[in-house]
Amino acid sequence: MKRSTFDGLHRRWPLLLLPLAAGCASTAAPSAATAPVPQPAIATPAAAPAPPAAPAFSLKDHYTKHEYRIPMRDGVHLFTQVFTPTDTSHPYPFLLNRTPYSVGPYGEDASSDPAPGTSLYSFAQDGFIIVRQDVRGRYMSEGEFVNMTPHKPHKSGPSDIDESTDTYDTIDWLLKNVSNNNGRAGQWGISYPGFYAAAGMIDAHPALQAVSPQAPIGDWFFDDFYHHGAFFLPHYFNFFSGFGKPRPGGGPTTQGTPGFRHPSPDGYQFFLDLGPLKNIETRYYKGEIAFWHDVVAHPSYDRFWQERRILTNLKHVAPAVMTVGGWFDAEDLYGALNTYRAVEDQNPGIVNTLVMGPWAHGAWSRAPGESLGNIHFGGAPSEFFQQNIELPFFKHYLKGDAGSAPPEAYVFETGDNRWRTFDHWPPAGTTARDLYLQGSGALSFDLPPTADTLFDEFTSDPPPPRPQNPAVNPPHNPP
User: What pLDDT shows up at residue 464?
Assistant: First the structure.
């Protein structure tokens, strides 16, 4: 057994008291800005016959697919798929998604239809020029892939590239080479693609009018891997065992790399048996995962991580922004809330909307989203988001739709299970408080008064994954 002492338990945890659930304290006065948003009826009388199923929407029936290798300012070509509507009676805006996860299937004759109930399905039905791109160094795009490409605020020539310049060059080429466009572009992405959406709106091309970073990585140290200091080993190991491998053959390829196949379904036991971190390299990675060496070499929040913090560079943002997140997102809740805040603080006067719903990571892109485990939200929040928030946002700014501009915040209130809108975020009149960690696992709004309460200690015994209570559990004696 190991004895561990956690110092600094007096550190502050900010708590914002908001009217988001029954029982939460708030000083916000009721107003039209905080009124519930009307939602469509979801119940059908038991005796009513089920309506006939609508035929599935097919991209092949309504779109033509083209593939291009778009040149960037430094000469690297990025592989890009463009789906243009076959109805050419009017021009369409571009809707761009840049991803490190592959735009496959590859080939102009190969296409896969978006699943009904997804955001992409609703975009395709409404009519956009849909653009999907492998980012630099991934799959069929040329160049070197860099994780969370550091932004370069000052550029002196065509060799100074980052995700902002790659987005700019892509949009500029599309405008000049894809016919029947209306001169406007939008961008969106979830999780890692959410980072690319956020990066693309910095010093953006004038045609980029609307951007929606969704569950965006804002700061990889806090978002995913160190979670305020605690290394999230299972998350890192499982993700990078496949994602972190170099491309087969070293250059553009349609082939991905397989992830790790655990020898047992008991993940807890796998990591318990792993031993020290060095065993990851000697037993499993064996020199294939370059980013592993970076992570273990930088266990503190040093310059390596600070350069990958896109939040501090979210300046010179001109497009309308709608950041989306889920209250129950275990990966990128930090990124969503702080991307909204960084844009708000560093770009006064622009349209900047926050959407927070009752979702796990990315669940808003899959309808209906009526539950999380055995918790039900009284409707279909994902479907409501797609049809009443997300699609109207892009139609308003890219198609000139007459609908109104979005509010400052769309927030789903759990407990009462309703959408609410706000003119300010946090809502006017709410009170921010600090919570302090105390000894013996307690929390308090008061700073610990004496030095002997500024730390706590406990016995770390991994086999029982919870503190032992002799009155309930017998002591564990490992061999």
Answer: 66
